[in-house]
Structures are given as structure tokens and as C-alpha cells.
Amino acid sequence: MSFPLPQRRVLALVALAAAGALVLAACSSSPSSNTSATSSTSSTTTTTGVPGSSALDAIVPIPAADRSPAGTAGQAPTVTIPTGPPPTSLESADLIVGTGRAAVPGDQVTVQYVLATYSAQKVIQSSWTSQPFTFTLGAGQVIPGWDKGVVGMHVGGRRELIIPPSLGYGATPPAGAQGIAANDTLVFVIDLLKIG
Questions:
Q1: How is residue 111 annotated by DSSP?
Q2: Which helix or strand (DSSP H or E) is residue 18 part of?
Q3: What is the rounded average pLDDT for all residues in the chain?
């Protein structure tokens, strides 16, 4: 599986890794919602509007005991790597429910994120130390787990995604992405700052 980001993003990752930084983006505007309620819909299985998705691509809820803490909107989250074997399906949980518009495929979204991996058992990247990250949802600019898992997030929300290798980087992590092993399971906590 090849790295899904455009070549310029790969080069940026290599340059950042060479500088000793695994960070892509960081601290920006605070979402307007300080709500820390857990979504009542996070316990249901859903499918996305991403082309090619099917019942086999269902997103399942992260068990409550394995979720990262909700934290506070506008502040970098803490990520908890679950114990036990990694999941084989995409798992998702809304840690903070946003009150803004919901993201749909084709939207340009701006997010903050923190990434931890099962192999490293720690955080290896965070956009909170530089600037937010913007991409077009469903356009293949990011790994499939993001294109599927960010759909339906509301602006101001925080969502945790546990992404299996088949929807992440697979057997071939991108050059310069230190801390991501071959066939690694990824744990992201993503804040949706804005759409458009």
C-alpha cells in the first residue's frame, strides 16, 4: 500500500523527520463548544458516505473502557492506547460532541490531531505544536481511516479513531515517519476546527 498523501506532503514529512520533528501542524483557534459529553450515537455501528464503503467497512464504537479522556475543547488532548490486541476494524468515538455543521465528503476541513501507535505505545505526532492541518475529506489526500472516520464530525467536536493497518499505512509506512511500524495500528484524537 502506498502513502496516500501527495508527494509534497511526503517530502514535508521527510523534512520534518530530518529536523527531529514528527509534527505536521499545531495550536490554533479554539472550537466554540466546551461540551465534554460523550455522543449517544458513538455506541452504534455506522457506515460512511465515502465511495466504495460497504457493510464490511462499518465503523464500530470504541469500547468505553478503551477511550481516551474527553479533555477540554481548544486544548491538546491526552491519548490512551488500549491494552490487548489491536482491532481489525475502524473504531470511532466522539469524545466531545461538536455543535457546528457536520463534515461530508468533498468538504475542506481543518483539524488538530494527536497520533499514537500501538507499536510505540506513545504519542508520536501532534499538530498542536505547530499549526492545524487542512485537507479535502474523501479525496484520498489522507489515509482511508481519516477519509472514513472524519465523516459526520461536527465543528467543535473531538473524535477518537483507532485505525487498523488496512485503513492506515499498511506494510509500507511513509518515508521519514518515525514511530510508525509496518502494519501498525494508529490511534488518533482529532478536533474539527472548521469546514471550508
A1: E
A2: helix 7-18
A3: 78
Cell digits of residue 103: 463534515
Q: Within 13 Å of residue 134, how many CA atoms lie on the same side as its CB?
A: 7
DSSP string, 51-73: TT--GGG-BEEPPGGGPPP---T
Spatial contact of 149 and 163, defined as CB atoms under 8 Å apart? yes
Handedness of CA 62, 64, 67, 71 (dihedral sign): positive
Q: pLDDT (tens digit, 9 = 90+) per residue, 81-97?
A: 999 999 999 999 999 99
Report CA 176 to chain centroid distance, whole Å: 19
Residue 15: is it exposed, middle or buried by C-beta count within 10 angstroms (0-12/13-18/19+)? exposed
Look at residue 178 and give its three-state secondary structure: coil
**3-state class of 188 per DSSP?**
strand
77 within 8 A of 71, measured Cβ to Cβ: yes
- The 3-state DSSP class for residue 151 equals coil
Question: Beta partners for 162?
Answer: 91, 187
pLDDT 10s digits, 107-116? 999 999 999 9
Give the integer Cα–Cα distance in Å for 172 and 174: 6
* Cβ atoms 100, 156 nearer than 8 A: yes
Q: Which of 133, 139, 151, 152 is nearest to 106 (CA)?
A: 139
Sign of CA dihedral 26, 27, 33, 39: positive
**Contact (Cβ atoms closer than 8 angstroms) between residue 143 and residue 4:** yes
